[in-house]
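Table S5 (text form). Sequence records supplied for joint modeling of the five-component complex.
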Amino acid sequence: MNAIIVSTLLGVIMMFCSWGIKTQKTQHTIALVGLFVLILSNLAQMNGWYAIDFDTKGMLAFTRFGLYVNTLFFIITFIYIWLNGEEIAKFDNQAADFYALFFFILCGASILTSFDNLLMLFIGIEILSIPLYILTGADKKNLFSNEAALKYFLMGSFSTGILLLGITFIYGATGSFHLVEPVLRPSDGLPKEQMILSAGLLLVFAAMNFKVSAAPFHFWTPDVYDGAPTVFTSFMATIVKAAGFIAFITIFNSQSKALGYTWELVLSFVIISTLLVGNIVAVFQRSVKRMLAYSSIAQAGFMLFALYGKSIYANEGIILYAVVYSLATIGVFGVLIKMKENSFEAFNGLAKANPLLAFVTTIFLFSLAGIPLTGGFFAKYYMLNALYAAGAGLWLIIIAILFAAVSVFYYFKLVQAMYFVSGEPTMHEVPKKYTYALLLIAILLLILGVFPSVVFNYLYF
Amino acid sequence: MPIEYYIFLCLTLFSIGVIGVLTRRNAIIVFMCIELMLNAVNMLLVAFSKMNYASAQALSPTTTAGIDAQIFVFFIMVVAAAEVSIGLAIIVMIYRNTHSIDINFLNRLKN
Amino acid sequence: MLISFLLIPILTAIVLLFIKKDTLASQTAIAASLATLALAVFASFNKVEAFDMAWLPNLNSRFTLEADGLAKILILLAAISLPAILIASAKNEYKQKNIFISLLLFTQAGLMGVFLAGDALLFYFFWELALIPVYFLCSIWGGEKRIAITFKFFIYTFLGSLFMLIGILFLNAHTAEHSFSIQAFIHANLTGGQKITAFALFFIAFAIKMPIFPLHTWQPDAYEQSPTPVTMVMSAVMVKMGLYGILRWLLPLFPVAFAAHTNVVVLLSVLGILYASFIAIRQDDIKRLIAYSSIAHIGLMNAAIFTVTGMAIQGALIQLFSHGINVLGLWIIADILEQQTGTRSMQQMGGLAKKQPTLAILLVGFALANIAMPLTNAFVGEFLMFNGLFILNPWIAAFAGISIVLAAIYTLNMVQKVAYGEISEKINNMPAPNKAAQAVLIILLIIVFVTGVYPQPLFTLTADTLEKLLAK
Amino acid sequence: MKVIIGFIILWPLAGFLFNGLGRNYWSKKVIAYKATGYIVASFIASIFAFLHVQTYGAVTVHYFDFIHTASLTIPFDFKVDALSSLFLLVITGVGSLIHLYSTAYMQEESAPHYARYFAYLNLFIFSMLLLVLGDNYIIMFMGWEGVGLCSYLLIGYWFSNGNYNYAAKKAFIMNRIGDLGFLLAIFWLIAKLGTVSYSEVLTAESLAKLSSADITGITLLLFVGAMGKSAQIPLFTWLPDAMAGPTPVSALIHAATMVTAGIYMITRSNILFSHSEITQNIVAIIGISTALLAATIAIKQNDIKKVLAYSTVSQLGYMFLGLGVGAYSGAVFHVITHAFFKALLFLGAGSVIHAMHHEQDIRKMGGLKSKLPITHITFLIGCIAIAGVPPFSGFFSKDEILAAAFEKNKIYWVLGLVGAAMTAFYMFRLYATTFLGKFRGSNEQEAHLHESPLAMTLPLIVLAILSALGGAIGIPHIMGGHHWLSGQLSSIVSTPHETGLSVPTEWILMGVSVAIAAIALLIALSRYSKQTDEEPSSAIGKFFYHKWYIDELYQKAIIEPLNKFALFLKEFIEKKVIDGAVNGTGKLVQFSARKVRLIQNGQAGYYILFMVLGIITLFLIWFNDISILRFIHTLTQS
Amino acid sequence: MNTLEILFYALSALAIISAVMVLISKNPIHSVLWLILVFFAISGHYILLNAQFLAIVNIIVYAGAIMVLFLFVMMLMNVKKDKEPQKQLWVKLTGVIAGGSFLTLLIALVKQNTSFQGRDVLLKDGSIGLIHPLGQALFTDFVVPFEISSVLFLSAMVGAVIIGKK
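The corresponding structure-token record, covering 1848 residues in total, follows.
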């Protein structure tokens, strides 16, 4: 609750900042301080200190897991804003407005980590989505940005419609918006009286797939990620997606045991098609940004494993995956922002021009590809473990692995461009401080690559 | 009135909305069709609400069962209003830039 | 003790990143690698304590390093090869040589880790860790087609190791406490079918790494395109990872599934031996020739291990070492030739015996080891391995034996084209002999003959492993 | 004794290391003295060993375990017994002479190459000693491969010449084919008996453990090894080509010692061979066929060394005939006498070549009788010895084999006789063309003709004496001798060959063979003392002249197809099929990437359409229980 | 057939026909007007279900505010009356088929579903749709979402400002 309240307040404060305070730097600092406060307040709640303590009437349920995930989200956002302050300021003279939107998004994310009622899910998703539509279209003069915003908006609203239909069906069948108990009773076949219920779940499933950009509901992702200003794509692809996953898991993990093997089939279908589309199409991209968009679809395919069933690995894994993936993606986009073009050729010879930058980029890419010694490896390992622990067939794991190998194809294309192709990278000036910030992220990833448990150990104390 | 009738009605409206989304090119009309879908859902929720109320009333006359669905509808409207403001803002922005709101021309981003 | 096999190379590698002067960098690296060698020699003749440390409590994975004979002999090989490579290539010019050497040291650390790891996850970790520096080494400093070739190599082996990862995951899920230790894996609760699945998953990784026909096509290309010092590491030590994996993991873990696949794998390996030998006959590129020859040798070792006879496994155990030494010698010679003549085509060589007789003699020496002449180290291993094959099936042994003849053909082809004949222009233009490299070669050649005449220390070293393996 | 035996073998090794490592530092004189000295030292040690065996019987000495594992132990043991001590004497004795000879013959070489030559030669002696001293098949195999290697190195001694290299390689590879057989035989022994030591393999208990099929298999494989080393059909073509090496090498390796390793090996394992009738017959048939085949070829050759080479092949055939018919001591006898007279002949030929400035074509020679008197006399003695004229050594040894053949099978004897006739014919053809008649070479050559120095003639003289008198060690009983050699070998040869022929028959046989040889000899002398052979015109002549076209046959039937096969593997299977499949996978990914991305066509309408279709698909999967998926699912659930 | 049923069918028919008209009108303005009619029909249904509060809100918010906004924007854009380009026929057909199958699928499911059989919707009666219980619920049980939805409006406001600014 602290997080929701504080982030809303901070959002409002930032709104007023845009009138009161004109210097970008101050706004940036306020945002960072605000985030710090947000982190503290959330930690406070984890330790049992509440600002306002009242009964949410079954709307929200604060679990240690959810609160901890919140903390991680806030920390990642902190890193993100710290890194990208200058870039955000470039857009407009109203960076504070964007910061406000970020805080609102964080509020939405906090709701998604703690909702206990489908109504809150719906509101949370909307709070998360609406600022995103705006961020996507933030580059107002850019036709790509415009187009992306409209596409995102239309498809997002459509998926909201689907989500609502699903919720309605669930309500019709159970008479409640609560999601405490498994709503479906375990059984072999599909009992006739549960048809509508399962249809409802399936529709919710589809809508959630849209939010986390899983195939075949992923179509918005490449275009939106590509069209949106890079700095916001970075945020969209990380925190927002991770929050979506947490919500997704909250809905379905309690149900999955009851859903039976047809559920596994449906999920397998989605996982495989997501991995297929994400990985295969990414291979052919000429734009790094678009490649990353597709790769984020592919990563979503891996994260979907956590849905397969409830296990300790799924919870730990999704946290680890979310953190690692977010850090790596923020890092890669952070480098990409400094490029004048988005093409692979822009990276040619980066290793020579700026070895440190090339090195950190390599760490990010390795992490995304899941190469050992970077956090990405354990993230993937945990997800596979979760998949197997939930009783999935080895065949699914093997398919996942094959696609993981394909992913090396496109991530390494960038590595090749940086290290092995000679040329002059076409990039903006990169301040030393910025590089060191990226280096910090890279070091974090390396630490997670050797001691992944530092992320979720906190879950248990 | 059997609940199935309402379900059929609402599903029909919902599907008409879906078809509209699929077949029209004007962004505003598409958006309107989405609103239609939401309204169909709203009506269905209200119908379910009254269905639940009906069954609960038989047991206790003062029940408020089903009220949550009507509140839900209220929130859907709230959200829809917010969405519309943003949606129209985006559409207007696009119109300002391209003088068109034909979604078929929105294919600069592809492949 | 064991941890220093990882620490010395890694720390040196990190230090090297900041030493910009080529000679100083190379001297530092040589000093460090000699220190590792000294440690390895010491470890070979003494009992060493296992190193154990908590690592991933959530996954029940521990940072366990332990060394038995098999590990020791490979550690020794890795420890010998690096200083040899560094000294032999000390004169070679590479841009940013400090980074080049640093990556080599990282590779060495990865290899050491693979050979020492007593925990499956750790094993996988090092397995990949050995690969990544090599990827950069080949791609940055390699030949013309390096990028595509190295990438193929990387993806190929990476894919293979991913299968192993699934296998590890699979076994881990079926152990009592979700542990990754070898012991826990051995006692994993699996049905027969599951064992075969797990066996296959592991085997794919090892088969690609070795490589076994028909999964070998990455190798000649990669060897050809890599800078030769890297090729040496790959060929002398890295390919042993696959065989090591089979001996350390596959055989103890799935003795039944292993035995069930003996015929298929042996047949495949033997086919591969002959196949590679035939192709080697037609090679003109000296590096490709050695590459195919290496495929044939590795195929034999694999076949021998799969016979599951004591003799053959014993042979393979010491051949792991011997082949490493021999092929290292051949690669160093190939490197000298390439560096000094600027070509790898044997057509353009000839008359080396006139120009640099010492080098030619060394070439003949290693060629003899390559064809397993008696009194060279390779003979002992190959003799035992063929023997095991014969016990398994005389016909297969006879069939595989053809490779002895074929090996003579391609190796002598090489000797003849390079060392003999009229002196060619390229050879004539060779600069003064590389004394340091020749000294290394002489030392290696002494090892070849000493262990060829008196191989008993190697047997003693690996006795405990053999006993463990055959106890099943 | 351990030390003496150690000395025998270590002296040559020391010589090898000394000459090999010091080749740039020592003068030729030092090299020559050292190299020869080491072998002489080894010879002296061998004499001690021989005497020791004569007095105390066979000795086995253990040095260390070469291989000692749980399942197999191969000790590094040496054994000196009657057989190996004889071979020791021959090897070191003839070896010393040839070293001595070489010091002069190779004088033209520069010091490093001179040293290299002696290093190789010493190494050869070392390997050969290893071969005969070993107490088990593994050590024999070490020597076996070692001598092959030295042969390779020495044939290719003049490495600039491509043809010589080719010949060297051919020799090595053909030897390797044989070695493979040998090796397989060893495996077979280990698989069945678990040991390779002679003292354990060649016993009654071991024989009892082997089935007759095992014995046949093992002996046949051993014989394959012998075929390679001793140049029998079909692996004989390397030997004539091996004449590319320096002539003393041909004398030592390709006539006197190495090529007889096969005979040594079979004699060593005669217990096994005696138990397999099939193998014995095969050995005899191959032996006599080789003898005849090589003899026919030798008749038509014009290169002095080639004639001798084919003659060697032919004589080796005789020895195998002897082995095949069970006359083991006869075969060893022939090995010894052959070592004397063939070394003599080769060295004589070397002397001629030396004088003729490396001219080897006998048609360009003639009339050398007066110019090279010592060479002439000694060469003549050699020819007489090989032709089987009593009382020269060749007569006794050959006759023993023929007698045994007669006893075994009359056809062998008849064929052997034909061979003997041909031997006499071609040897005297060679002698007559070279030494008799008028000189046919260029004037320049004639001007330079000279007798060789003492270092070369001395070995000739010694060998001539041995060739003439060497038969003394095996004078048959009917002539009043007591066949010393046969007695010597009685401990080795399981069934000492006691001729079952009556005395008159033996005399008749001897008479017939001597008569036939004499006739052939005279024909040759009369025909070739005035004229030479021109290019053969008759079909059969051409056939012989071209060595039965066997090289061509091998080329067409084996080498070329194999080469083509290798090329096919390299160019098609490797590049197109296997690598094609690997790269194809990559291409497939890229291709599908190109296609799949087209779905992302940028139209929001399509996207939503696909979403709707996606939902429908999910429903279908969920509710309609698509059976294929269920099948896959159940199939792969593990 | 009683009055309620007649009303139900009439409103349903109106809603569906108007909804179809939204689709097929060439002129966007007409579409808007038809949609308003749909909303009115739905509001009629709400009244039928005795959800008075929602019926009013629906009229005010949807038909009143939202649709007027739509109309407003459309006027602003000065979209030519019947110039709206049409999609290709097969695209439309596919859309219709897809939507139709979606409908068929769901209807088939509902038909098979047994738990709704014999369950009726209470028309006309029931007090839960009145403003008093709704208000009570909204400020007790649903106060959290109610408060939080303010964030939604705040972000929409900020968004509109960002996008609306020149």
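Note: Chains E and C do not touch (no CB pair under 8 Å).
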